[in-house]
Amino acid sequence: MSIELHSFTVALNAADPQGFRSRAEHRAWTWQAVSNVAKAVQAAGMDAEARLRGHDRSGLLLFEATDRGAAFLRDLPSVLRVEGHAT
Predict the structure, then answer these.
(1) Alpha-carbon span 65 to 71, nearest angstrom
(2) In what order do the strands lie in the sheet with 50-55?
(3) Residue 86 in contact with residue 6, Cβ under 8 Å?
(4) The whole model's pTM is what?
(5) Residue 5: how many CA atoms within 13 Å on its side-chain side?
(6) All residues at 6 or more sequence positions from 15 whose CB lies less than 8 Å from its CB, including other chains
């Protein structure tokens, strides 16, 4: 049985840099938020359902995930939205 993964872009809450005093503060927040999402996925045992593939400085993350993994990501408090990519 194989697991079908799809690509999803995950936007984090407060990813807009305008709300921070400096770019450095925004980058630090982004790094911490990305780390927290990755830890939440791992702690919940969702590693096979949602795999972090990358992120940018603006707080957008690229995940490969099953539908169940995407639903899990949507329920995280630090996640603003999860958008699927057409294949």
Answers:
(1) 9
(2) 50-55, 60-65, 6-12, 79-84
(3) no
(4) 0.85
(5) 14
(6) 30, 33, 58, 59, 60, 80
Please state, in angstroms and rounded to a whole number, the distance separating the CA atoms of residues 23 and 87.
34
| Cα 42 → chain centroid | 12
Nearest alpha-carbon partner for 47 in 78, 69, 77, 74? 69
Bigger pLDDT: 3 vs 42: 42
**pLDDT band for position 87 (cuts 50, 70, 90):** low
pLDDT at 59 over 90: no
**pLDDT tens digits, residue range 15-39?**
667 778 888 888 888 889 999 999 9
**H or E stretch covering 69:** helix 67-74
Asked whether 79 and 73 are in contact (CB, 8 A), the reply is: yes
